[in-house]
Amino acid sequence: MKALCKRYPGSGLLLEEAPRPHVGPSDVLIRVIKTAICGTDLHIYNWNDWAKKTIPIPMIVGHEFVGKVEMIGADVEAVSCGDLVSGEGHIVCGQCRNCRAGRRHLCAHPSGVGVNRQGAFAEFIAIPEANIWKHNSNVDIAVASFFDAYGNAAHTALSFDLLGEDILITGAGSIGCMAAAICRYAGARYVVVTDVNQHRLKMALTMGATMALNVQTTPIAHAIKKLGMKEGFDVGLEMSGASSAIQGMLQNMSHGGKIGLLGIPEKEIEIDWNLVIFKMLTIKGIYGREVYESWYKMTVMLEGGLDLTPVISEELNVDDYEKGFEAMNSGAAGKFILNWSSM
Description:
The protein is of the alpha/beta class. The chain has two domains: about 1-145 and about 305-340, Quinone Oxidoreductase, Chain A, domain 1 (Alpha-Beta Complex), CATH 3.90.180; about 155-285, NAD(P)-binding Rossmann-like Domain (Rossmann fold). Helix content is about 30%, strand content about 25%. It is built from twelve helices and 18 strands. It has helices at about 40-45, 50-55, 95-100, 140-145, 145-155, 175-185, 200-205, 220-225, 245-250, 275-280, 295-305, 320-330, and strands at about 1-5, 15, 25-35, 60, 65-70, 85, 90, 110, 125-130, 130-135, 165-170, 190-195, 210-215, 235-240, 255-260, 280-285, 310-315, 335-340. The strands form four sheets. Strands 3, 5, 6, 9, 10, 17 and 18 form a seven-stranded mixed sheet that branches. Helix 5 packs across helix 11 (about 295-305) and helix 6 (about 175-185) runs parallel beside helix 7 (about 200-205). The N and C termini lie close together (about 10 Å). About 45% of the residues are buried.
């Protein structure tokens, strides 16, 4: 089969021949139709410090995908050949305290698809039945290809009560923009999104943001004043990992506000803990999706009319994958979808 592989250290990926994955008794083999490029894939493509420390090579990358079931193992019961599916990208151990208690998203020993084990940027991928999500027949197949990233946005946004609340989202990448759409869908009053990239800020407005601020020229306090808010933001969703974004969020939260941290800083950062303590803020770290509560809510929101298609920048044939990665590196892009059906 054809696959996008990290074969050697350094920048780039190779589209090359790779063996079809082995299908165990509890596994499902999926013929991949579409995949989506995410930030993790970009880190691996660029071979940054995180990738150097984390990724064993050779590695077939990618974890956002949609496809049809090609084959099932002997012990598979709830999945059938021909089902349209995506997959939860964290393969859990099943034996730690949280797994045994049903809190699989808190597994102490997860294995990441396309990070710790062979990934989805290929004609075929095999994952355990427990990681399969079956889509409804009316799902937009392009949106289905990035359910993993959509789940990050949903898990972060829906960690807190949003109805009637004022929301600050720092970071207008695709996940931040999807979070803005989710917040509006869930009944937030104001949703303010910040970034330093004008293209991304325009996308945030398209996805439902009340205001989109370039914090290089406009302070967050401007939005508070312009919108007539009295005491700051009720909920903060940090999607960038930037130290300045986290600091700005803390300074503009209301007393008793709640913050979800999804963005991963590239290095250790200092924060003013006095702001956290005296404002009595609640801070929650977010990693991945709640298995499978996030997935249920994601599906229901789409059924209810949530539109995520504006976050898609372009669909490409997999042969043109470098164009997608170059655009992602420029910062002027949302989601790039790679089509595998022509392989």
